[in-house]
């Protein structure tokens, strides 16, 4: 009687041969699937993620979101085969490498040996940190011998799925980049820089030991999921679960944070670095307001933390520090809503975001607050966050007041809704 692994292998072989793949190409892929998942469709990496399925898609949303959009069950082996075929025919995942210049279409039609194509798929599709895995070629040859019927196969000891993320640390190797390590272990560059106190993500060195998970007691990163509801926004979901928009987009392979849809399943990781210090490197086209929105903080906070006087003057390659309190990282302040208050105005006053205030106070509609309502505000320790008042005197300037109280002009203008910092008047009462 055939084993479940062999039954699944025969299904995959039949599926792709009928799609026009050569037997050698299918078996080259099978040799890799054997190492990745044991040729099991419904399987999580290390039991919890972040990889999932036949080829251990990381993040799993690459598979799950696509299957949902196609009306397919992502647990099903046929649905996963359809996703692989879609990737190979649409320039996704498979790319020529230094070792093998073969394209996806060349791979599909290749009649080179299954052993060779197993190594091609390893280098051009899987791209693991450890490329020295000749057994994948041997496994590919085994499946070719068994499934093509050309020769009598030599039995190969079945392999268990690889479990690379059970480790908590990684030692940097020659040629490594932080983005490459992040991709391999299903985390973000921002998390790696935060967990390892790295100020410049472009400066890591051979032999450096990196922490791969949050916490210092070997705690595991737990995977959860959330189904998008009507009215949800990515920033609101991020605030609710104490993570950043950038983490959600990274974990779920979302290119546009404004495009999520009802019923979409999002992957969430607890202990995922939602609080603490994040180092972000400015990219071409970035704006401070865009970065602030992605990380759920205010522009004035970003200016304060990074000594930026003009929010419009940032440059590609600039390194920004971002502090996330998420309801537990700073001092708690209570604020009583006054007549004329808005949640956005209160958020600006305390240097936090509307989504954070909504999350901390269980507010579902930020437009519905009432006079006398007591709000909890968690200050990060860098934004002022107090409620001290100052009456402007003749001769005062906003910059002199900022210097006196150890804050920035940007904070004063934000907390007091001042559009022109040069237009203040004697007798005006401001928050400092």
Automatic annotation (TrEMBL):
Keywords attached to this entry: Hydrolase
Superkingdom as given in the UniProt entry: Bacteria
InterPro entries: LysM, LysM_dom_sf, Phage_lysozyme2
Domain LysM: 168-212, 224-268, 278-322, 333-377, 388-432
GO molecular function, one term: hydrolase activity
One Pfam family hit: LysM
Protein name: N-acetylmuramoyl-L-alanine amidase (Cell wall hydrolase) (Autolysin)
Taxonomic source organism: Ligilactobacillus acidipiscis DSM 15836
């Amino acid at each position: 009687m055939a084993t479940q692994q062999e039954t699944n292998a025969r299904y995959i072989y039949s599926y792709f041969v009928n799609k026009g793949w050569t037997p050698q190409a299918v078996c080259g892929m099978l040799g890799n699937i054997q190492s990745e998942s044991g040729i099991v469709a419904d399987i999580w990496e290390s039991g919890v993620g972040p990889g999932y399925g036949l080829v251990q898609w990381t993040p799993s949303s690459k598979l799950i979101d696509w299957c949902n959009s196609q009306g397919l069950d992502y647990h099903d082996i046929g649905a996963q085969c359809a996703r692989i075929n879609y990737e190979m025919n649409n320039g996704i995942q498979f790319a020529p490498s230094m070792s093998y210049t073969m394209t996806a279409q060349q791979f599909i039609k290749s009649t080179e040996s299954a052993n060779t194509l197993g190594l091609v798929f390893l280098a051009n599709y899987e791209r693991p940190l450890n490329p020295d895995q000749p057994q994948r070629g041997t496994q590919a040859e085994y499946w070719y011998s068994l499934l093509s019927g050309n020769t009598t196969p030599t039995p190969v000891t079945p392999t268990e799925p690889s479990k690379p993320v059970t480790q908590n640390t990684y030692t940097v190797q020659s040629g490594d980049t932080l983005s490459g390590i992040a991709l391999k272990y299903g985390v973000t560059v921002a998390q790696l820089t935060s967990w390892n106190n790295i100020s410049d993500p472009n400066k890591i060195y051979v032999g450096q030991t990196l922490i791969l998970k949050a916490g210092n007691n070997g705690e595991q990163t737990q995977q959860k999921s959330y189904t998008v509801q009507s009215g949800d926004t990515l920033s609101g979901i991020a605030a609710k679960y104490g993570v950043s928009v950038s983490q959600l987009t990274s974990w779920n392979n979302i290119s546009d944070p404004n495009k999520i849809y009802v019923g979409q399943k999002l992957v969430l990781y607890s202990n995922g670095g939602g609080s603490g210090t994040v180092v972000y490197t400015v990219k071409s086209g970035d704006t401070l307001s865009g970065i602030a929105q992605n990380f759920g903080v205010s522009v004035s906070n970003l200016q304060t933390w990074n000594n930026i006087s003009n929010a419009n003057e940032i440059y590609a390659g600039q390194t920004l520090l971002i502090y996330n309190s998420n309801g537990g990282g700073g001092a708690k302040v209570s604020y009583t809503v006054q007549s004329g208050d808005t949640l956005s105005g209160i958020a600006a006053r305390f240097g936090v975001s509307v989504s954070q205030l909504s999350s901390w106070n269980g507010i579902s509609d930020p437009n519905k607050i009432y006079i006398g309502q007591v709000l909890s505000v968690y200050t990060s320790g860098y934004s002022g966050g107090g409620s001290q008042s100052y009456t402007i005197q003749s001769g005062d300037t906003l910059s002199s007041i900022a210097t006196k109280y150890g804050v920035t002009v940007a904070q004063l203008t934000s907390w007091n809704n001042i559009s022109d910092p040069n237009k203040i008047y004697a007798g005006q009462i401001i928050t400092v």
